[in-house]
Write a structure and sequence with these properties.
Helices cover 0% and strands 61% of the residues. The protein is an all-beta fold. Strands 2, 4, 5, 6, 9, 10 and 11 form a 7-stranded mixed beta sheet that branches. Strands 1-3-8-7 form a 4-stranded antiparallel beta sheet, with no helix packed on it. Strand 5 (46-52) and strand 6 (57-59) form a beta hairpin.
C-alpha cells in the first residue's frame, strides 16, 4: 500500500509565500518522478511542476520564476516553494509520483488527496 500525504496549504495574502510538502510512504522500491498539479473550482486539473530522479525539473509557464520544486530522496518527500502568490493560484494542489513498488519493482502512479491553497486579501 502506498500513500502520498500533502501538507502546508492554507490562506495567504497576495504576494505572500507558502511551501507545500508531500511525503510518499509504503513498499516503495524507487521513485522516478514526483510533482504537483492543481485544480481550481470548475477547472481541469493542470500541471504545475515536476522533478525527475537525477534532479531535472520542469514547470508550467504560470509557475516559472515563482515556484520552486525540490526533493529529499532520503525522506521520499517533494516540496513546492511558492512565492509571489496571486489570487489565480488559488486551487487544490495535488502531489503525484511515478514509482516502482516492492521487490518485483512494479510500476505504479499515485496521487495524494490534495491540500488547499487560497490566495486572498
Amino acid at each position: 500500500q502506498v500513500q502520498l500525504v500533502e501538507s502546508g496549504g492554507g490562506l495567504v495574502q497576495p504576494g505572500g509565500s507558502l511551501t507545500l510538502s508531500c511525503e510518499a510512504s509504503g513498499d516503495i522500491f524507487s521513485i522516478e518522478a514526483m510533482g504537483w498539479h492543481r485544480q481550481a473550482p470548475g477547472q481541469q486539473r493542470e500541471f504545475v511542476a515536476t522533478t525527475i530522479s537525477g534532479g531535472s525539473t520542469n514547470y508550467s509557464d504560470s509557475a516559472k520564476g515563482r515556484f520552486f520544486i525540490s526533493r529529499d530522496n532520503g525522506k521520499n518527500t517533494v516540496y513546492l516553494q511558492m512565492n509571489s502568490l496571486k489570487p489565480e493560484d488559488t486551487a487544490r494542489y495535488y502531489c503525484n509520483a511515478d514509482m516502482t513498488l516492492g521487490p518485483h519493482r512494479i510500476p505504479f502512479h499515485s496521487w495524494g488527496q490534495g491540500t488547499q491553497v487560497t490566495v486572498s486579501s
